[in-house]
Structures are given as C-alpha cells and as structure tokens.
Specification:
The chain is mostly helical. 49% of the residues lie in helices and 4% in strands. The protein is built from 13 helices and 4 strands. A two-stranded antiparallel ribbon has the order 1-4. It has a two-stranded antiparallel sheet with strand order 2-3. A hairpin with a 2-residue loop joins strand 2 and strand 3. The longest helix is centred in the last third of the chain and has 27 residues. The radius of gyration is 22 Å and the shape is globular. Bound molecules: zinc ion. Zinc ion binds next to loops.
Length: 285
C-alpha cells in the first residue's frame, strides 16, 4: 500500500497520526517521475503530474475497475505498453484514455524528488518555510494560529478549513467505504459543510456554543460561520480568544465524536459534546 493511500486507524499513536495527517500538507511538495512503474502505487501515488488517479478521476470506482488497490503501475503494463482491464463505465474509460495518451513506462527506475528545494533534496527547514508562506496567505489564519491555542483543536480546524478532513463523502469516492452517509443523522452525505454545522446533530451542538458565546442566533452554513468568527475573533482581547477557542473546540469535538461513533461505536449526546467544549473554554478563561 502506498504511504498516501493508508487510512488512518483510530487507535494509532499520536505521532504516527500526525505524520499521516501531514501527508495532506506535504503531498504537493514531491515530484513523481514515472520510470518502470515498479515502485509507484497505481491508484494512490501522485504520478499523473502531481496527482494520483483517485484525485484526478474521483468518480472511478476502484472495486469495479479490476485493478487491485495494491497494484503498482507496472502491473497494468505489458512489454512497455499499457495493459488496462476493459473499462466498465465512462469514468474509467476517460481515466484509461488519459493515462494512455499522456504517460508511458520506461527502462529507468521511478523517481521521487522534493520540489521545494531547487536541488530536489529534502529538508525540514524547507517544509517549515513553505508552510509559513501558505499560512500567511489566508484570511482565517488568525482564527486557528494564536497564542494560547490548543494545537490539536487548531490542527483539526485547519484541515477542515482546507477541506482536507477525510469525510465519508471522500472515502466513498475513493472506494474505501460502501456508503457516504453521515453517521450522526444517517440522512445526508457527510461533507465538511454538512458536518459543520448543517447536520441536525451538530447544528444543535453549535447552537448551544453560539449561545454560550453570547450570540443568540441560529447556526449558519460553514462558509458564513468561518467568516463570522474570522471577523469576531480578530485581535488579542480575552473575548476574541474565547471566540476562537470556541470555534476550534467545536470543530475538534464534533470530529472526535464522529470518529468515536464510527470506529468505537460510542455515541455522544449533543449535551456531552457541548459540555466538553464549555469546560475546555472555562479551563482557559
Ligand atoms: Zn448528519
């Protein structure tokens, strides 16, 4: 299995979990140059000019394609030509056509280089610099990175803001799970927008948090809540900090409750989640 294709287990160690989370950040910092196709995962490595097949063709169903999940690129070739199974639908047809028109294997080894440094070698310093530049470009930057933040809350919220959480909608598209329904309401597709906070379940949690923060209004959609809290969380005042903490804590606790339900079959009530958010705010106040 490719490093990029590993689904993070819920009981993984913290540090391994963080490394797996970081994949989404450092993903675009590598150049994959196809050689003999013996090292690259057919589905998960970004050998199509920086994108993997599942990224470039999200509608292709791995299960129906007859190319196994663990296949290497070389497994789909025969004597330097492509040897792909008969496509069952037009999505797969389109993907195969694209691959055959634009890529071919060669005699040399597959190569991976680090795109951030000019010489192609890896350094942690270059990752850090690149991340700093990315951070300063977005308006919601201060909503998550501020003195006194809770790193795990900020990190989860950051992934949500960049739409990089592995929601069920994405996992379903990638062929990892059979359906994309939200585990809280079992009605709609689980997207970032749905989870925060359109789902009737998280809507209730968020409504309580809003009231606790002194906003007596109904929850709005994700984009509007982000821009509302970006505005109302500006500055270093105590109240601005409480708002930012409240926002990030809510995203983290809802995501945590969602994982606990999916992986451990433990169901949290709206009140339990709200109480966790409230006590985390009171502890830091
Ligand atoms: Zn839902």
């Amino acid at each position: 299995m490719s490093f990029w294709g590993i689904v993070k287990p819920n009981n993984t160690s913290w540090s391994w979990g963080q490394i797996l989370n970081l994949r989404r950040v450092i993903y675009n910092m590598f150049n994959y140059k196809l050689g003999d196709g013996k090292s690259f995962s057919f589905w998960f490595d970004p050998w199509l000019d920086g994108k993997s097949i599942i990224e470039r063709f999200p509608n292709v169903c791995i299960k129906n394609s007859e190319v196994p999940k663990k296949a290497k690129v070389v497994d789909c070739t025969k004597e330097d030509n492509w040897n792909l199974p008969e496509p069952l639908d037009h999505y797969t047809q389109e993907a195969w056509d694209f691959i055959m028109a634009n890529y071919h294997t060669t005699d040399s080894n597959d190569r991976i280089s680090w795109s951030v440094n000019k010489n192609g070698s890896f350094s942690t310093n270059s990752v850090w610099k690149k991340l700093l530049i990315e951070r300063s470009k977005v308006s919601w930057n201060h909503l998550i990175w501020y003195a006194g933040n809770v790193p795990r809350y900020s990190f989860t919220t950051w992934l949500a803001l960049k739409n990089k959480l592995n929601t069920r909608e994405k996992l379903h598209k990638w062929g990892t799970i059979p359906d994309d329904k939200c585990c809280f309401c079992n009605q709609e597709s689980e997207t970032t927008r749905h989870l925060f906070f359109s789902c009737p379940f998280s809507y209730e949690v968020w409504k309580k948090v809003l009231a606790y923060l002194g906003f007596n209004r109904n929850p709005d959609n994700w984009n509007r809540e982000v821009s509302f809290f970006t505005r109302r969380g500006r500055g270093k005042s105590r109240i601005a900090k409480v708002r930012k903490n409240g926002f990030c804590a809510a995203v983290y606790q809802i995501w945590f409750a969602r994982n606990d339900l999916i992986f451990n079959k433990r169901r949290h009530s709206c009140d339990t989640i709200f109480n966790k958010i409230r006590s985390s705010l009171e502890m830091r106040n």
